[in-house]
Amino acid sequence: NSQPILSNKSQMLGMPQFGLRDNLIKCELLKNEDAYTYIKNYSFFLGTYNVNGQNPKESLSPWLASTATPPDFYLVGFQELDLSKEAFLFNDTPKEPEWMLAVYKGLHPDAKYALVKLVRLVGIMLLFYVKAEHAAHISEMEAETVGTGVMGRMGNKGAVAIRFQFHNSDICVVNSHLAAHTEEFERRNQDFKDICRRIQFRQDDLTLPPLTIMKHNVVLWLGDLNYRISDLEVDHVKDLIAKKDFETLYNHDQLKRQMDEEVVFVGFTEGEIDFQPTYKYDTGSDQWDTSEKCRVPAWCDRILWRGKNIKQLHYQSHMTLKTSDHKPVSSLLEIGIKVVNEESYKRTFEEIVRHIDRMENDCIPSVSLSEREFFFQDVKFMQHQAKTVSVYNDGQVPCQFEFIPKLDEPTYCKPWLTANPAKGFLAQGTSVDIDLEVFVNRSTAPELNSGQQQLEDILVLHLERGKDYFISVTGNYLPSCFGSSLSTLCLLRERIQDMPLETIRDMKSNSQVSNPETDKPQDIPKEIWMMVDHLFRYAKKQVRIALFSSLLAGSNHSVAEALLLFLDALPDPVIPFSFYPQCLDCCSDSSRCRQIISVLPQCHKNVFNYLIAFLQELLKHSAHNRLDVSILASIFAGLLLRSPTKQDLTEKRKVKEFVQHFLVQTTSDRDIDEKLPE
After folding, report:
1. DSSP per residue, 427-459
2. What are the tens digits of pLDDT across the range 634-663?
3. Cα angle vertex 652, ends 649, 654, to 5°?
4. Which pLDDT belongs to residue 155?
């Protein structure tokens, strides 16, 4: 905890919204920050270590205490802290306190350090220590995690991140573990982009948009990035290492090539690599991988930075540590931090107040908009679209703007639309770009699919003490099976996009079959059959790769992800919401569970039995795909039996238990081939 000085940037940005005058003072202080701050250098020790699921077996001092003088900050990242199934499924591991203690014992002995933050996602952990005397100047601490592993969401791969304010500089630190295997560099690129997009830190003022990684003065990125050496045979690589010809080897490094092409880490810097690759060694030795796979050595473990006033003092590996098949890496950075000069701050503040006092406050604020009508063409489910409106302050005074709700409406826009930023401040003669973003998710798709709602909205941009401006947002949504009900899809013979909205609307309101011969509903939606049939034919022996790994290129991974997304987007799940309480009540009784399934609406019952038969078929090939009942239940239970409200831990366990009864085959269960529709 800290009590930041009044001039702290985060303190100013978090001040209550007292009105135009206070926001103007705040804005002018930020704009003139250089007038009352100076740069002071602090040392940051960054370390990354993939420990391959091992326990700490040796002192970490050769790594963490390798600097001549104690650093001001420690930011220590681990990957593969725990490789067990329990850590993956429940995000709990006894190895966290073990490695935390090992780090604490390994810190530089010539200073006292305080633990500021620990954040972990499965096996990805980041520890943040600071010299005790600096702790009072740290504020705005936030932590976030994002999984990019199983189905692009689970935590076997991904990142953990922290952001904080130190004096007047904001800093973000990311520890990531990206996709593996030499040929998967494009997947690693996508993981990086997903992490940058999905990690968002909330602000104290909840009306302000979240902060992304790149919105910070300083970004420090470390971890097992998993980029490999390309186009060289293993013996050639080892020969170059023996000759210490790291320059030639580095020219074949995938991360260097991707950065040179500005595909990833644009604006980041990495120091010169003058140490041998840190992967892969035989555990407990300095010998290269002698296993059957004989991995090509690579610089998997990296440290990069982005920002001004940063100087790297060292970048090295630590060969004496032999616990893992990786070697730890460290970087010592000297970072210039903005520190407030109290006298200069007071003088600047008084000058700003005097200037505002002289301004004519009786002028009416005015702005001009670059456009007032926006049309979003061919909007699709879960595909983001954005357009920009520029707002220019053409009046004589500063102004404060905000999108406000229309009469009798709770929010300023429809749920599929957002404006970013939704409010702000404009000095005279300045402009701001506001992104109008359209994103249709599972909550908004059903009514758009059926034509009950349209992509139509009017935004009201309000100026404090000024007039309102109206922005029209329209578009056309392409209906899809995602977000459509099972009953509707069973009635469709054609693609939903090819059918008139009136027809779909009639089907939703009247599920009766008008012509039993030609309009008879299908047993299950053709979309489910197509996805399951593909996986059954081409991936049943590799389904763990297809369903539970982000590393597989090609259609199997895409189809598996589409299946899970389809089930998650159903407006009424496979087991309808109305049956949810009964299912929880009887979750421990297999016969009662089966009795509930027997009374489901016909199309829901058909889909449930079909999917269960598919999962049972996968279990027959467990020797190849390494799946078991527990893993499949963990993935599918929450999709087949979804709660209408947020689940607690007890409910999640009951839901899993309910579904597990059906994954254990009985004599009455039929083979998947018998359940395939004609």
Report:
1. -TT-EEEEEEEE-B-TTTHHHHHHTSS-EEEEE
2. 989 999 999 998 888 899 999 999 999 999
3. 115
4. 65
pLDDT tens sequence across 404-459: 999 889 999 999 999 999 999 999 899 999 999 999 998 999 999 888 899 999 99
Residue 9 in 3-state DSSP?
helix
Q: How far apart are CA 226 and CA 181, in angstroms?
A: 8
Contact 558, 583 (CB under 8 A): no
Cα–Cα distance for residue pair 608/613, rounded to 1 Å: 9
Cβ-contact 331, 264 below 8 angstroms:
no
Measured CA to CA, the distance from residue 359 to residue 355 in angstroms comes to 7
- The four Cα atoms 530, 531, 534, 536 give a dihedral, to 10 degrees, of -110
pLDDT(513) > 50: no
Contacts of 482 (CB under 8 A, 6+ apart): 381, 382, 442, 445, 565, 566, 569
Closest CA to 325 of 49, 64, 95: 49
Cross-strand pairs, 49: 78
- Token digits for 267? 């604006």
Find all residues with CB under 8 Å of 645, minimum gap 6, and list them: none
Distance CA 570, CA 445 (A): 9
Say whether 104 sits in a helix, a strand or coil: helix
Residues 6+ apart with CB under 8 A from 211: 163, 200, 201, 203
Token pair listed for 289 = 């991988």
Q: Which residues sit opposite 288 in a β-bridge? A: 281
Nearest to 12 by CA among 148, 250, 205, 177: 205
Sign of CA dihedral 353, 354, 357, 363: negative
Which string of DSSP letters, residue by residue, matches 214-243?
GGSSEEEEEEE----B-S--HHHHHHHHHT
Beta bridge partner(s), residue 454: none
Give the integer Cα–Cα distance in Å for 159 and 222: 10
Do residues 288 and 280 make contact, with C-beta atoms less than 8 angstroms apart? yes
What does the chain come to in residues?
678
Which helix or strand (DSSP H or E) is residue 640 part of? Answer: helix 629-640
Strands 468-477 and 373-379, how do they pair?
Answer: parallel
Number of neighbours of residue 202 by Cβ within 10 angstroms:
12
Q: Residue 198: helix, strand or coil by DSSP?
A: helix
Q: Which tens digits make up the pLDDT trace of 115-124? A: 999 999 999 9
Matching residue, tokens 């810097």: 269
Q: 32: exposed, middle or buried (C-beta count within 10 Å: 0-12, 13-18, 19+)?
A: middle
Q: Are strands 468-477 and 417-420 parallel, antiparallel or unpaired?
A: unpaired
Cα angle 278, 292, 242; round to 5 = 40
Helices then strands, counting H and E runs in the chain, come out as 24, 22
Phi-psi region of 521 (alpha: psi -120 to 50; beta: other; left: phi over 0): beta
Is the CB of residue 545 less than 8 Å from the CB of residue 150? no
Q: How many Cβ atoms sit within 10 Å of the Cβ of residue 19?
A: 11
For 624, the token pair is 């190849």
Distance CA 255, CA 248 (A): 14
Q: In 180-307, where do the E strands start and end?
A: 200-201, 211-212, 218-224, 301-306
Q: Are 155 and 149 in contact (CB under 8 A)?
A: yes
Any idea of the CA torsion for 319, 322, 328, 330, to the nearest 10 degrees? -50
Q: Please give the Cα distance from 205 to 16 (Å, whole number).
A: 8
Report how far residue 321's alpha carbon sits from residue 493's, in angstroms, rounded to the nearest whole number.
Answer: 63
84, two tokens: 């067990």
Local structure of 587: helix, strand or coil: coil
